[in-house]
Design a protein that fits this description.
The protein is α+β, with helices and mostly antiparallel strands. 35% of the residues lie in helices and 15% in strands.
Length: 136
């Protein structure tokens, strides 16, 4: 499993390049200390707007559509992947409590859709204080 990257995956790099081309500036793999002792590292962080973007791999984050469960060592991988999903949920809640908007994207989401979701989250809030509707 050594060849698996924690950061700079192909989908993440493609999204970062597209955001940079549009003029957005961000922090990559930026450590956020949330004050309760919890540390979270979004793949892409827009610190000024408090938007955290995670590009989740289908295997490591148990994608319901594309995630596969290894046949070997199921005693290890089943609980490990379940803990990853649980950790993501806890981190999302902690970030939201700290005032961050969390965007989670699967690695298989087309770049255009991923880019649209991030740009929508970064758009100025409308008069009602809600984020604009993002496409499917």
């Amino acid at each position: 499993m050594r060849a698996n990257r924690r950061a700079d995956t192909k989908p993440e790099l493609a999204l970062r390049r597209a955001l940079h081309r549009l003029g957005y500036r961000y922090r990559k793999d930026y450590r956020l200390d949330l004050g309760d002792g919890r540390r979270v590292r979004p793949d892409i962080a827009f610190t000024g707007r408090k938007v955290a973007v995670f590009v989740d791999g289908c295997f490591w984050h148990a994608c319901p559509d594309h995630g596969s469960k290894p046949r070997a060592n199921q005693w290890y991988w089943g609980p490990k992947l379940a803990r990853n999903v649980e950790r993501d949920q806890v981190n999302d809640a902690a970030l939201a409590l700290a005032g961050w908007t969390v965007i989670r994207l699967w690695e298989h989401v087309p770049l255009e859709m991923a880019l649209a979701a991030v740009v929508a989250a970064l758009a100025p809030r409308n008069a009602g204080g809600h984020l604009p509707e993002a496409g499917p």
